[in-house]
Design a protein that fits this description.
Layout: H1 2-10, H2 12-37, H3 43-70, H4 79-107, H5 117-202, H6 206-225, E1 231-233, H7 234-252, E2 256-262, E3 270-272, H8 276-288, E4 295-304, E5 307-314, H9 330-343, E6 348-353, E7 359-366, H10 370-373
Parallel strand pairs: 2-4
Antiparallel strand pairs: 1-3, 4-5, 5-7, 6-7
Helix pairs in contact: 1-3, 2-3, 3-4, 3-5, 4-5, 5-6, 5-9, 6-7, 8-9
């Protein structure tokens, strides 16, 4: 409270300026009345009288502001403060008129109407008491208006702050969910690869096991370089895929044939990191592994009307019976969940049988240029 009172004192020049403007306004009214009534009183009497009155109010303004903070009007408690301020407004009005009367008699203003202090006080009480009460409430009204505006600004800032925090928390939650999906996906792939290496070791195919370990090391090194990235360029994603296919090529040798056809426009498209690996792994497991002669996998990517469309197709036996979300393994389930987290309703993952045999998984999501975003 003391700091606010000191701030009121620092704002004194502003108070005097505002009261001066009000005094000059009243002076113009008094001069107009003087001209109409042909009053012989010199004009400077009116000017000095009005300025004295408003400057006394200017001196009283800090005290009124302090009382306004001391007895604030609130919705739940307005009757008692209103009564207090009504009484105070009458006291301040009488006190201001008392000082003004003393100055009038001292400066001999309006000598014909106010010959002495008592006469001046009587005249001013009749003419100015209600105006003084009104001036007191004007000061309070301005103060409450400013306080209300400041509280409104503070509430608005708090709302913006909470909205920002909520947005940040939502972003963090989304990132945490995506990271959880990635952490679930990568160990799944890693365990499958280590299991394949174990099988090779048991079959005494140490050369193949060493080769697979080398490819796995290269893949993990590449993934760790972008460990914090939720999205990478399609070009980078295809590099991951080639490292993964090198591992699978050790297992299947000539039985695995992979064709990649990518539209040059999509090379820089942003795609979820490691989005292709689980889909291709699923195609190998359900297509190539089930055929003694092996199989072929086609990977295509194109930009269609601002949308990236990535299709992975195998030539295996295809899907048996109706396919539901419950039939998905970890890889496809996580892929669908990651697409939904990153792109919402703008992303789709479709699984279908192909006319010539085999199954196809198609992903569609908005095109974003990874170079521009970086």
């Amino acid at each position: 409270m003391e700091n606010r009172f000191k701030r009121d004192l620092r704002n004194y020049p502003l108070y005097f300026l505002l009261w001066t403007v009000l005094g000059l306004f009243y002076f113009s009214q008094g001069v107009t009345q003087r001209l109409v009534s042909h009053d012989p009183t010199p004009w400077w009497h009116y000017l000095l009288a009005w300025l004295l009155g408003v400057y006394i109010w200017a001196l009283l303004t800090p005290a009124i502001l302090w009382l306004g903070r001391r007895f604030p009007l609130e919705r739940r408690n307005w009757l008692r403060p209103s009564a207090i301020h009504l009484l105070l407004s009458a006291v301040f009005s009488v006190f201001q008129l008392f000082l003004e009367s003393a100055l009038y008699s001292r400066l001999h203003l309006f000598p014909s109407a106010m010959k002495d202090f008592r006469g001046a006080l009587a005249q001013l009480l009749v003419r100015g008491f209600h105006g003084g009460v009104f001036d007191y409430w004007i000061v309070l009204g301005v103060q409450w208006g400013v306080l209300y505006y400041h509280r409104y600004q503070e509430r608005s800032q708090e709302v913006l702050k909470f909205e920002l925090q909520a947005s940040e928390l939502e972003s963090q939650l989304m990132s945490a969910q995506l990271n959880a999906l990635k952490m679930q996906l990568q160990p799944h792939f890693l365990f499958n690869t280590l299991n394949a290496i174990t099988v090779l070791v048991r079959q005494q195919k140490s050369r193949d096991a060493e080769q697979m370990l080398g490819h796995l090391s290269d893949l993990l090194r590449g993934v760790l370089e972008d460990v914090d990235a939720q999205e990478v360029s399609l070009r980078r994603e295809l590099e991951y895929l080639q490292l993964y296919l090198s591992i699978e090529q050790v297992r299947f040798a000539d039985r695995l044939c992979v064709e990649v056809s990518v539209d040059p426009e999509t090379q820089n498209a942003s795609v979820p990191q490691l989005i292709l690996q689980p889909i291709v792994e699923n195609a190998i497991r359900h297509g190539v592994e089930r055929s003694s002669a092996g199989g072929r996998i086609l990977i295509r990517a194109a930009k269609i009307n601002g949308t990236v469309e990535v299709r992975v197709q195998d030539d295996g036996p295809g899907l048996s019976g109706p396919y539901s979300c419950e039939d998905q393994g970890i890889g496809l389930a996580n892929t669908r969940a990651r697409l939904r987290q990153l792109y919402g309703e703008d992303a789709r993952l479709e699984i279908e049988n192909c006319n010539g045999g085999g199954a196809a998984v198609t992903m569609k999501f908005p095109f974003h240029d990874s170079h521009r975003e970086s």
